Amino acid sequence: MIFFRRQGGDTPADASDAAGQAGQTGGQSGQPGQSGQPAQSDQADPTGLRARCAAADLPDAVLGVLEAEIGRMEKTDASAPENAIALNYVECLLDLPWNGLTRDSLDLARAAAVFDASHAGLGQVRERVLEHLAARVLCATQPAAVLVVDDEPIARDNVAHVLAREGYAVDTAANGEEALARLALRRYDCIVTDLKMDRMDGMQLMEAARRVAPDTRIVVVTGYATVDTAVQALKTGAVQYLSKPIDIAELRATVREALADRAQGLSSRAPVLCFTGPPGVGKTSVGRALAEALGRRFYRMSLADLRDEAELRGHRRTYVGAMPGRIIQALRATGVRNPVFMLDEIDKVGQDAKGDPAMALLEVLDPEQNGRFVDRYLEIPFDLSQVLFIATANGVERLRGPLLDRMEVVEFHGYAEADKLDIATRFLLPRQLREHGLTAPYPQVTPAALSRIINDYTSEAGVRGLERELARLCRKLARLRLEAGGHAGGVGLTGLAGMTGPAGTMERAASAVSAGGIAPGTTAPDAVPSNTLLVDEAVAAALLGPPRYRHDAVHGAPRVGTATGLVWSEAGGEIVFVEAARMAGSGQLILTGSLGEVLKESARIALSHIRAEAEHLGVSGLSGQADPVQGGQSGPPSQSGQPGQDASPAQDIHIHIPAGGIAKDGPSAGLTICVALVSLLSGRPARADVALSGELSLSGRVLPVSGVREKLLAAARAGARTVVLPAANEAEARALLAEFAARGSGGLPRVAFAARVQDALAVALLPAKAAGSEGGGPAGNQGGGPCSS
Length: 789
Prior knowledge:
Layout: H1 2-7, H2 13-29, H3 37-44, H4 49-55, H5 60-74, H6 81-95, H7 108-118, H8 123-141, E1 145-149, H9 153-165, E2 169-173, H10 176-183, E3 190-194, H11 202-212, E4 217-222, H12 227-236, E5 238-243, H13 248-258, H14 262-266, E6 273-276, H15 283-294, E7 298-302, H16 310-313, H17 326-334, E8 340-344, H18 357-365, E9 373-374, E10 381-382, E11 388-393, H19 401-405, E12 408-411, H20 417-435, E13 444-445, H21 447-457, H22 464-483, H23 494-497, H24 505-514, E14 534-535, H25 537-544, E15 562-569, E16 572-584, E17 589-592, H26 597-612, H27 614-617, E18 651-656, E19 664-665, H28 670-682, E20 690-692, E21 695-696, E22 702-703, H29 708-718, E23 722-726, H30 730-742, E24 750-754, H31 757-764, E25 787-788
Parallel strand pairs: 1-2, 1-3, 3-4, 4-5, 6-11, 6-12, 7-8, 8-11, 13-14, 15-20, 17-18, 19-25, 20-23, 23-24
Antiparallel strand pairs: 9-10, 15-16, 16-18, 21-22
Helix pairs in contact: 5-6, 7-8, 7-15, 10-11, 20-21, 20-22, 21-25, 24-25, 26-28, 28-31
């Protein structure tokens, strides 16, 4: 009995002997003529490293390595290079947060408030972050579940009562079979079981529980304690062995010790999130907000210039100047082993003769491996399982497959105009006004002026360009205010005199400034001082100059041979106009407009489908057309298929997508090209207010496309009334419509879904008698970047 209780925490014999020897040493040191204790301590630890080791909270394995290293240092000459290498190594081990943790914040409402106060327009990303936080809060706040198994009702009830008062969720079972039945229904963190029971004893229960719930801790209690049964119980899987009658304090301490690492086990498999999206959409700021919501420290490390594998895994201590890898250095700087660690620009990681850093990241990011990450400099496993890794990338195409498999991709889409307006009003404009000294009083920039800046001076998915334009506007306002007398004066006419702008714009801006900052025809709000400058659309245009970008709008009457399509790129969505014309020629298919190979293939597929289904589609004039796959000269004119008639003359078909200076490629223009060709060959005009997007198969099926969100926003901005999308994208499109309706951001066009070409033709084309005048379509896309359909 004494043997078992001594395992529960009695002082070991060697410790008591050491304490006795220390007492004898202390007594001897107090004799007259002997040196004092501080002098002996300094002599035993001349470097002071042993005292730092004793004061630090270090694992036993690390203490053993430090003891050996300090012992070698004491035997080495202080001037030797090996001594400096060893000193750096020891100090690195002492500075690392082997057990340093920050307690996570478990207030989900506060986390939501932190996110909402710093971001706007990231609905899906916000929900994913809050879901992650909710899972952590649920795991951390639910009480530990304990199952008490004993065939004696009194003993079972007493143990359950004691543990329930400790705050545990306690269930009871009368025997091993009943305990296994409960294990099949729920998870238990700890099982307190009697050893001797009818039908299934404690040993059999432990063996069965290890197969069903291997992570459950088991404490054995019995009144028939022997050394053999204790050893057998511990070998079977018990973490502790208690004897009857049970000491209540010992029972509480044993269960508390068994559940000590429960919270660590619940959060040991932290997810590795990969934020992907265009530049400027808030990937880094979301990671910083997540760290603030969790109450953790945040560290950002850029991987854009990473070429050497040793920068991650560290250098071996075989030469002077060796150092640990950047992961260990970052943890040493943060001082805790559970920070939010952002690996920025992970898709820019390079590769050279010194190794592949992307493959070295596998051990860092894999939840199955990073619990024992070995840095080559340390040569000791370090636990990275508590670190919340967040990677950022502009796209996942360049990421290696094994690396991408370790991460959960969270996509960041581009902002809608309403989101950009909200971000500019709440965050960007106030910050730029403060940074440029425009605070006494603040200039009032109207929402209409911000909308004009967003549409005419930026073309991006994020808001970095918008912030630069607002900074440019603030610089001009700051110069005008300074020339007018600084903080005491308003903006005068002199500063605007040398500026150029559209006709009538400068006069209106000057009138606005001379009237005390309020534009003619407007009323100053009560809260706005009379000397406050009101920057409206005219003033903004006068200060920023001519527009840099022009977004096309659907307009005009329906036209034959011209269809409106939707494309998207990293800068967001745009509309394009597909124009088709036919003429006498040699049967060629001519494609122009800086088109990529995939888009050219889409045009050939559309023409081949029309030729194969000409009778059903109601088109004519293709009998002399060359094979569109060849795209060149045709052979001898083919027969029309009707006896007694000659073949129709060969004709060239020319398909053009304007804005030839912009590269365009992608499969989703196939449906738009098909509608333009059917309109041309059947004489049915295509509606200008209907925009289409869909990949076309040779049999006429409309296949799903990507970038639905960006395309819907582009259609709304261009004034389209109806958007035709593939039927396979219906669920995604309806979810987006519901999201915008819930946020109050209406104005999206009606969406029609097409499974085959005929469904799209019924929406986009009018009867032939409704044809207006044929001719060229509207001007093409003049946007600011390469488009991908």
